[in-house]
Amino acid sequence: MPERGNLLLLGTFIHCKSVQELEYIHNAAVAVDGNGKIVGIERDHQDVEQAKGALLKSLAWSASDVEIHACKPGQFFFPGFIDTHIHASQYPNAGIFGKSTLLDWLETYTFPLESSLKDLAKARRVYTACVRRTLAHGTTMASYFATIDVDATNLLADICLDLGQRAFIGRVCMDNHDISPEYYRDESTEKSLEATLKTVEHIRSIDPTFDMVSPVLTPRFAPTCSAELMTGLSVIQRDMGLPVQTHVSENKKEIELVAQLFPDSKSYTDVYDECGLLTDRTILAHAIHLSEEEASTIARRGSKVSHCPCSNSALTSGVARVRWLWDKGIDVGLGTDMSGGYSPSILEAARQAVLVSRHLAIGLGASAETTPEELERSQLMPEEVLYLGTRGGARCVGLEKRVGGFEVGMDWDAQLIGLGSVDAAGMSEDDEHGNLEVFGWEKWEDIVPKWVYTGDDRNTKKVWVKGRLVHSRA
Ligand SMILES: [Zn+2]
Q1: Domain holding 376: CATH number?
Q2: Number of domains observed in the structure of the chain
Q3: Which biological pathway (predicted)?
Q4: How confident is the model over 49-84, as pLDDT tens digits?
Q5: Separation of CA 222 and ligand 1 centre (Å)
Q6: Are 368 and 336 in contact (CB under 8 A)?
Q7: Cα-to-centroid distance, 437 and ligand 1 (Å)
Q8: Taking Cα atoms as reference points, which of 141, 140, 220, 160 lies closest to residue 186?
Q9: Which residue segment(s) compose the domain that 45 sits in?
């Protein structure tokens, strides 16, 4: 049984054709069936009416049986964003850092808030707000860290399914009693594994094939986890084929701490590798201060990196080398890392990815191993950061065949973007479009970078996940 009626989308469609290249599809029509799948695309017609007619005819659909969404002037469809690293439980702390860096920020701000979400009414309030807000910014898929609490984590899965956001749901594992605070840690290694399996079972009960929401095994990061726990999680990973997410090499003090806690391991990356956690379904957040050898290990295992530029700047962690990671053959996506990052928006993360790559090109934050040629090549262009936020992210979560672009057979996970325009007298048409104003003479190749630099959620007019309209501004 299809979940809903057929859809027809009309207008301009823009998506990433490759890492460097955007494809502009004009005067086009896209057909989406009741299961949310793209079943037909007609493009480059004289006008959308012609595209619509041709598509209806080829599918033997009648116009009266389909729900139609047509672009107004200045609007275009873009694939939904994928946030490969976000802490739903930290949403209320977005923008609160003090002067802290990673380790004291965790103690002062993060652990107290996360532990308080065992109050389920509070968890429901925080998670509902987080999912609604990220949907409003065009995030159609998010890989979430929740908390250590099973019931609150299960609630996040329920909320994502209910509000229609695709999600990985991670119950946070932390059993190292020397590092995790007494009030916020798993009682023991066994209890941590048991609690993780409870969340897996809950999600299986609400979404048996993990089609929309899937559990993700989530050792918080090496300092809060015993080797036994991480090895136990890798056994579950192999048994069930589940994704894994954690942090790696975010901050120099953190790296020193890992070296003290795991003196027999050659590197931070090797700690995870020795526990069997580096798989082709593993997402590693940050990966800033990696050595050549660590990057080679990550590439060999097929593990992915979530680049979180807002967080890396806000917590003074450093500058991740995206081009260098790409050169090693590692898949990279974008993460907000809220609330290490202050913004729930992947568009903001994309913008910041451009800016921090410029810092790298200037030489700021480059490691001693970075060559002058690498520095010069390190700058990212708007097209490339949009790739990170869509197809790159899809590869990180293993959904590259289903989301991240507009192709027949993929799911309709998309956003409708609207631009403001300036009239002859220099007045804005209205305030609904924020800072993104066009004058009418811009080429599409200029409009997209303008969106990357000046756009925000006011430009995200509608959002669909798997064909379901999950957000609408007007
Ligand atoms: Zn994080």
Answers
A1: 3.20.20.140
A2: 2
A3: Purine metabolism; guanine degradation; xanthine from guanine: step 1/1
A4: 999 999 999 999 999 999 999 999 889 999 999 999
A5: 13
A6: no
A7: 34
A8: 220
A9: 6-79+405-472
